[in-house]
Design brief:
Layout: H1 2-40, H2 42-53, E1 54-59, E2 66-67, E3 73-85, H3 87-90, H4 93-101, H5 108-120, E4 127-130, H6 135-143, E5 151-160, H7 168-171, E6 174-176, E7 195-197, H8 200-204, H9 206-210, E8 214-220, E9 226-233, E10 241-242, H10 247-257, E11 263-269, E12 275-281, H11 286-291, H12 295-303, H13 312-315, H14 325-335, E13 344-346, E14 349-352, E15 355-358, E16 366-368, H15 370-375, H16 379-389, H17 391-400, H18 422-429, H19 435-441, H20 452-464, H21 498-513, E17 532-538, H22 545-550, E18 565-572, E19 579-585, H23 595-613, E20 623-625, E21 630-632
Parallel strand pairs: 2-10
Antiparallel strand pairs: 1-8, 2-3, 3-4, 3-5, 6-7, 8-9, 11-12, 11-19, 13-16, 14-15, 17-18, 18-19, 20-21
């Protein structure tokens, strides 16, 4: 018995020892694991814990400002409150949107947009449900925040255009990133409040205006709700872009053009190439695109026959009409087919084979030399000059003066117009060029088309004899109240005789400042501010002989869309030309007078104003502001 007790005791001791050893080994392993987790891997798990508690969010940087040449703000940023949802934290998105919709108005279109954006973006990226919340709407969301997981209020910036439609076509607008534009690995493009340039300067300078992203470090609770912001880096705002525009002049031109239904007007400093004003009227509100344009408003803009979305100053292609005659005159002088003293008879019509081409003056002008041909805008004089020249020599001169190809400006959407040649027509239509087409091209009709900007550049080159290039932004990028004087000599010479240029400009002076000139009624009478110019009327449709005979072309009898375009180009002051202006009034041509009666008075008023302001040389003593369109000392 004693032996059995001893054996049993030894067995129990061995089992107790094994059990104790196992416990010690288990405790040791647990201690080692705890040491590994809490000491060796402490940094890693501390980081993971912090990541559960702290979120790092990207912040859209403030977009760069856009100012005029004197520093007047044309595009700024203002505060905007919006409600956003994070799909990762919200759970059922449809139910969440319904819950938010019970608190603030949300359209079905907004709901569909949110669902689309959630599908194409990362689930941790906030998606804007609605922008531009009122204080009451924001308060309702905040009060109900505990029942809205993943929903929060964010404060951001939205683009603001203080002058509204006044410079809309130059500035352009910004809008949300579309699915096609959501390319690459730039996380900024996915932010709910991030906007990119869609047109104008906003588009062409988009990269510089964007800036670099900031970050917000926020503490969140177990539901993902933001508890507090721990740190914030606003990032770097975009670069400032300084335009050549003089906003006070731009505002003046816009208001002056508003008297007509549809107008494009460009004002330039011929010595520097600075575009001082560029108006396409009517305009549109670029701020509406930044906030989000409704479908109804978009359709209204598209349906407007005056084309408010179209920047007519750079993309409106019009037959130049008689404003093209100075180019034909220069080509004729250079080729030697006419001289300043060449006299051509105008009986009121021009015969070419079986075709008859009429002069705008039914009874004709009689015998005219170059000065009289330009002053009276005699069609027959230029029919004959064009016949002697041929289309190719006319085209060669036109292209030297900036017509027939894009000028390469900073604003996208520019059209190049068209200056036809024999080769162009044969290659495009397969039909040889006809001499009758040369006759029509001689007065700026036929296939010839130009933009208002090209007409302004053409006039600037007439003034300087140099290859003036237009620009919309200041090359130094600095807004200044001190405008250094310019010298056109840095532009390459056109190689055109200075004497020939002077003769053509003398004819343009006669148009405005000599009795019986076609624009004499629109002359500037202020001493030292006189302008010279050339009028033009471009047919929208062919006028039949029956209409000519019966007088049915009276403006009241013709639908607006079928009326001729009225054009005028001008330069001032006549003594030392510096400023040029080109104006096209769509369907503004009358049965008599044409560009002289409609477009010339606009150029007169604009050039009088620009000379009084003299923005290319003088320091303005007042600062223009958007508040009620006033000037501030």
């Amino acid at each position: 018995m004693r032996k059995q007790d001893r054996d049993r005791s030894r067995l129990l001791n061995r089992r107790a020892l094994l059990l104790g050893g196992g416990k010690i080994a288990l405790l040791g392993a647990l201690a080692a694991r705890m040491y590994y987790l809490q000491v060796v891997e402490s940094a890693r798990y501390r980081t993971l814990a912090e990541e559960n508690r702290i979120n790092l969010r990207l912040l859209a940087p403030p977009r760069g400002l856009i100012t005029d040449r004197f520093g007047v703000l044309l595009a700024d940023n203002k505060q905007n409150y919006r409600v956003v949802v994070v799909a990762d934290q919200a759970g059922d998105i449809v139910s969440t949107l319904d819950a938010v919709g019970a608190l603030i108005p949300i359209s079905e279109a907004d709901k569909r947009r949110v669902l689309r954006e959630i599908k194409r973006k990362h689930t941790f990226v906030p998606v804007a449900i609605r922008d531009n919340l009122s204080w009451e709407e924001m308060a309702r969301i905040e009060v109900n925040a505990p029942e809205l997981p993943g929903v929060s209020i964010e404060q951001g910036l939205t683009r603001d255009y203080p002058f509204g439609e006044t410079a809309a076509h130059v500035l352009g607008y910004v809008a949300a990133v579309s699915e096609k534009e959501l390319t690459g690995d730039d996380p900024l493009l996915e932010l709910p409040d991030f906007r990119i340039g869609k047109s104008g300067i906003e588009k062409s300078h988009d990269i510089e205006l964007r800036g670099s992203a900031g970050t917000s470090e926020v503490e969140v609770n177990a539901f993902g709700r933001v508890v507090r912001e721990l740190a914030r880096d606003e990032g770097d705002s975009g670069q400032q872009v300084v335009l050549t525009l003089d906003m006070e002049l731009q505002d003046f031109v816009m208001k002056r053009c508003a008297a007509e239904l549809s107008v494009a007007c460009v004002v330039m400093d011929a010595w520097s190439g600075d575009v001082l004003a560029s108006v396409s009227c009517p305009g549109y509100d670029p701020g509406a695109f930044s906030a989000g344009l409704s479908t109804t408003a978009w359709r209204q803009l598209l349906a407007d026959p005056r084309g408010p979305l179209n920047n007519k100053a750079i993309s409106g292609a019009y037959s130049p009409g008689s404003t093209f005659k100075p180019i034909v005159a220069l080509a004729g002088l250079e080729a030697g087919v006419i001289t300043p003293d060449t006299r051509i008879a105008c009986p009121g019509h021009f015969e070419l084979g079986a075709a008859t081409f009429h002069c705008w003056r039914k009874g004709g002008h009689g015998m005219l030399d170059l000065h009289g041909g330009i002053k009276n805008s005699c069609d027959v004089y230029f029919y004959e000059t064009a016949r002697r020249l041929g289309i190719d020599r006319i085209a060669a001169m036109a292209k030297r003066f900036g017509l027939g190809a894009p000028l390469g400006i900073e604003i996208p959407g520019e059209k190049g117009g068209l200056v036809p040649t024999r080769d162009w027509k044969l290659g495009t239509t397969g039909v040889p060029w006809q001499q009758g087409e040369t006759i029509s091209a001689g007065i700026g009709q036929s296939f010839v088309t130009t933009t208002p900007l090209q007409l302004a550049v053409m006039t600037a080159r007439l003034v300087t004899g140099r290859e003036v290039q237009p620009r919309f932004t200041r090359p130094d990028g600095v807004a200044s109240r001190d405008m250094p004087d310019a010298d056109p000599s840095h532009f390459p010479s056109l190689g055109v005789s200075a004497r020939d240029l002077a003769r053509v400009l003398d004819g343009m002076n006669g148009v405005v400042n000599e009795q019986h000139g076609t624009a004499y009624a629109a002359r500037i009478t202020d001493p030292g501010l006189q302008m010279a110019g050339k009028s033009g009327t471009a047919q929208v449709r062919r006028i039949s002989q029956a209409e000519r005979d019966t007088g049915l072309r009276k403006i009241k009898d013709v639908p607006w869309k079928e009326r001729d375009h009225a054009l005028f180009i001008a330069l001032a002051p006549v003594s030392t030309p510096r400023y040029v202006c080109a104006c096209v009034v769509e369907h503004g041509g009358e049965s008599a007078g044409g560009g002289s009666a409609v477009a010339a008075p606009i150029c007169r008023d604009v050039l009088r104003e620009v000379q009084k302001r003299d923005p290319a040389r003088k320091v303005p003593d007042r600062l223009f502001t958007a508040e009620n369109n006033v000037v501030r000392s």
